[in-house]
Amino acid sequence: MPDAPAAGRTALEDPLRLPVAFAHVLRRWGLTIPVGRLPLYAEALGVTGVASRQAVYWAGRATLVSRAEDIRAYDGAFHQFWEGGPPPTPRLTVPTPVVIELPTTDPDKPGPDPAPERPDKTEVVRYSAVETLRQKDFAAYTAEDFDAARRLMAALRLRPPTRPSRRLRSARAGRHPDLRRTVRRALRTGGEAVSLAWRAPGSQPRRLVLLCDISGSMEAYSRALLRFAHAAVVGRSRVEVFALGTRLSRLTRQLSSRDPDTALAAAARAVPDWSGGTRLGEGLRTFNDRWGVRGMARGAVVVILSDGWDRGDPAELSEQMGRLHRVAHRVIWVNPLKAAPGYAPLARGMAAALPWVDAFVEGHSLDALQHLSEVISGLDEERPAVA
Amino acid sequence: MTPDDVTAGLAAAGYLADEGLATAVLLATTLHRPLLLEGEAGVGKTEVAKALSRMTGGELLRLQCYEGIDLAQAAYEWDYSRQLLHLRAVEAGHGDVATAEDELYSPRFLVRRPLLLALGGGDPAPVLLIDEVDRSDDEFEAFLLEFLSEFAVTIPELGTIRATEPPVVVLTSNRTRDVHDALKRRCFYHWVEHPDFEREVAIVRLRAPSVPERLARQVAAAVEAMRTMELYKPPGVAETIDWATALASLGCTELDEGVIAATLGTVLKYREDADRVRTHGYAALVAAGMAGSA
Prior knowledge:
The complex is a heterodimer. By secondary structure, chain A is an alpha/beta fold. Chain A is built from 17 helices and nine strands. In chain A, the strands form two sheets. A six-stranded mixed beta sheet of chain A has the order 6-5-4-7-8-9. The radius of gyration of chain A is 27 Å and the shape is globular. Chain B is an alpha/beta fold. Helix content of chain B is 51%, strand content 14%. Chain B is built from 15 helices and nine strands. Chain B has a five-stranded parallel beta sheet. In chain B, strands 3-4 form a two-stranded antiparallel sheet. Chain B has a two-stranded antiparallel ribbon with strand order 6-7. Chain B is elongated, with a radius of gyration of 24 Å. The chains are: A alpha/beta, B alpha/beta.
């Protein structure tokens, strides 16, 4: 372990030694430091010099930090490395061991095997099993059910509706003449612009924003929806995922990993209060202030998964839903409780939010998720007659 | 050069930078890498590039990003109408259209946009401002990444145009979405904060010399108080300057509840925010102002 004075002396012998040692500490504070940044940091130190604390501090901030969220961790690591401060508190490095127990489908692992000796019957059994599974409530899922549902869920596809893009593409006809191609063609016809080439706006899928309530009662549904979201995040880049708990956590980065289990475990670590209580209004407010109204929710399809049990102030929730609704293309509320017979949206939060919701769906089972993906695509709007 | 020299140079150019920003600017200019500035709207990100251009004397080339921005607006375009006219002329003079092609795609028909202009060099090197890069789309960001790593633009008809001397590049982002990691990796990064009280007073005094010192202090203190009121859009430095200027042009020398009510629209741009400040009471702002000017 480098102690600061010793590290300072050896820096003269090998200019990279010090940055490497500092990067080691930074990584323990949770920062991602690409190796390629280290020579740049060494160069930066060469420019600012190492005589003053401020010079060393700012040279590192400008080269090794690239997100405002990382500044606090940088400060901690700086204090530890250069000034003998304390190492990171365990919470930052050792994640709270609340890992989502999504069962791993390990083919090598011995486990309950669904009667492989009777191939003649499997077909039928599997079919009806799938049928039941499709309608089974996620809350009643066993580990095996989640396992079996994985494959079915991977087959679900999210196709957000499109909007006209501002980027022009070559087209057979359009309003914007493509002068570059017109001149090219003119060369072929002896310098006379006989035919005009055109450009027209293309189309682009709308951004999809998922806000998942992760309070206790919603946990099973959140897991299912996150898995569903994972397929979507990997499939296309324009999906943003947030967890709503006692505070808002952004999960998009964690969910962008290819492997669903790693992604969900990373997401679970990123959320400080998995299965705590929910303050929907405050969470939405943070979302609106920091991301949504600034651009992320503009023209987007926003999906909120929650039972509407809010420990906060319903007036705040209503106000924030209104803000969200004014900028979003559509707001879809997924409430798994809606599937229960005789359900009425009486929870204060739910009642406050409903006036700002464009579509209110169940999302409690695979079939319901299938329906949700249709609602997201806007199929329910465009083709109401098709069952 | 030291960060202090940069601070002094920027101050002479009308921008009061803190040490962090000065260091980042120093690194970007000496190590020839772009500087990415992020921060709330209205903290003065764009102003940095303008001041930098005044400081170095390099020409300011500004590229405002928006969704769908493409090479034709960002880098270069051919002057199509002149190309067509030229073709006509060749044809009328019974020239050979086939050989006219080479002439058509020569630099004289090239329209240079900010990115290409920035490669042209100059003494001192131009300052390229790529403003609100978060508004552009993925396609453009990918192109920008290539441009910023090579400082070169490839034009199919002409070949690759390389910078004779790398320009000073400043990118700004309001964080409506995350800028790509690969792009960030090319850049030095600085998060621009709201200035502290004394600096904000100094900025108002510098940018709006017509505002008396006492009023500037009161306005800066009142704005600082507003930033703690959980507003949708907390006022930035730009709003502080606007407000102070508005008050000075109305002949005010002191904040009182009446003038606050009359001029609040220059600081707060959301009805809900105005309501929130009103429920806190204008008296609170006046009191904060008094404390600030004491």
